[in-house]
C-alpha cells in the first residue's frame, strides 16, 4: 500500500532461523529491528547494530 501511494518505507524481511535472519540483516543493512513472532505490545523486540549481536536476541527468542 505504501509503495502504491509513493510513500517511502524501510527495507524489511522475514526469517525463521538465525541463518535466515543474518542473511536478511545483511541485505537490508544494520541496524535491524528483531521482532519475535506471536508477542504483543513490542515485548522482546530488540534493535541490533551488528551481526555478532544478532545471534544473542534470536537464540533467546
Overview of the molecule:
The chain has 61 residues and is mainly alpha-helical. The chain has one domain (2-60): 2-Layer Sandwich (Dna Ligase, domain 1). The protein has three helices and two strands. A two-stranded antiparallel sheet has the order 1-2. Helix 2 packs across helix 3. The mean pLDDT is 83.
The major beta sheet can be summarized as: 2 strands, antiparallel
What percent of residues are in strands?
5-15%
- The CATH architecture can be given as 2-Layer Sandwich
The geometry reads as globular
Rg from alpha-carbon coordinates: 13 Å
Number of domains: 1
CATH level 4 superfamily: ATP-grasp fold, A domain
Total of DSSP H or I helical runs spanning 4+ residues: 3
Read across the widest sheet, the strand sequence of neighbours is: 1-2
User: In sequence order, what are the helices and strands, one letter per element?
Assistant: HHEEH
N-to-C span: 30 Å
Structural class: mainly alpha
Please give the number of β-strands: 2
Low-confidence stretches: none
| Residues in helices, as a percent range | 40-55%
Mean pLDDT: 83
What is the CATH top level name? Alpha Beta
Can you tell me the CATH topology?
A: Dna Ligase, domain 1
Amino acid at each position: 500500500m505504501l509503495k502504491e501511494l509513493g510513500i517511502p518505507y524501510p527495507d524489511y524481511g522475514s526469517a525463521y532461523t538465525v541463518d535466515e535472519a543474518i542473511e536478511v540483516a545483511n541485505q537490508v543493512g544494520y541496524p535491524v529491528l528483531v521482532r519475535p513472532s506471536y508477542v504483543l505490545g513490542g515485548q522482546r523486540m530488540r534493535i541490533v547494530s551488528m551481526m555478532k549481536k544478532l545471534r544473542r536476541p534470536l537464540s533467546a527468542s
